């Protein structure tokens, strides 16, 4: 990708995350007696290369089970990669000293999908928001209440509610509490894992507008995970499409919607609801998402692709440049990349 490396705040290099089903002694003995091999690991993330630019909103889209949430949790430090590395401001987080590691962990915060389960039901909002900055020495105990009140106002909550418990709020209000909790540590990157999926449509729009306003005020970078391309189109500068643990296409948002290259991306866009006079037949993607524990050979999308070729069944396509965007007037210059064998025959 064509850009100044100083703009890159986070880099992922061949990042992988595997899960192995734990077995007790009885299961292990039964497997040995029946001559069965050890269970295959589940490849939730199967080799992701990605640069995240400071100040951008990058949307990560894909079906359930594609690995997007696992990728976000690795970025936030909740999960450790099985292979590959994460670089923060050009340095591998595995090699950071204690002070630099603490800076990274505070700089990357996460907002979860379910605002109710992510908040401690026994804590008041003043403690949910103010506990972490107080523990990390970012504020004095005497300043905690005023600091929490200020953050609540920033996210559209009445500071008078600071002594309430999570169950006393609506879903949209609880999500705003989650946003305030993330902002409390003054992060530079926020991972939003389906942050509006559990909300009503009208509340979704309010929270999305809140994200946009906070981005401008605090110079935030968003890693915005969603299964909904329509939601991502309103907030993202760039969109990455994931399928079975890999990125299959990445481009500026406008390019994705006007000139999608990968058949999977084209199918997702085709499924988006549209307001139009004529009726159209709903044509969903054929077949089911393959199991991450037994991915198909070659291109992982070939069992469901309408343009499948013999080569697709044998050789996995590489994520490569489709076209360059070298408009010097734009503050961030991206390239359109796609992993599809069709690009070699066009």
**How much strand?**
15-25%
Instruction: State the low-pLDDT regions, or none.
Output: 328-332
Distance between the termini: 22 Å
Q: Please give the count of helices.
A: 10
**Major sheet, described briefly?**
8 strands, mixed
Overall 3D form: globular
**Mean residue pLDDT:** 87
The total of beta strands comes to: 12
Global structural class:
alpha/beta
In sequence order, what are the helices and strands, one letter per element?
EHEEHEEHEHHHEHEHEEHHEE
Strand order of the largest sheet: 6-7-8-3-9-10-12-11
- Kindly report the oligomeric state of this protein: single chain
Rg on CA atoms, Å: 22 Å
Share in helix: 25-40%
What does this structure look like?
The structure is a single chain. The chain is an alpha/beta fold. 29% of the residues lie in helices and 21% in strands. The protein contains 10 helices and 12 strands. The chain has an 8-stranded mixed sheet, with helices on both faces. A 4-stranded antiparallel sheet has the order 2-1-4-5, with helices on one face. The longest helix is centred in the middle third of the chain and has 18 residues, at 201-218. The radius of gyration is 22 Å and the shape is globular. Mean pLDDT is 87; it is low at 328-332.
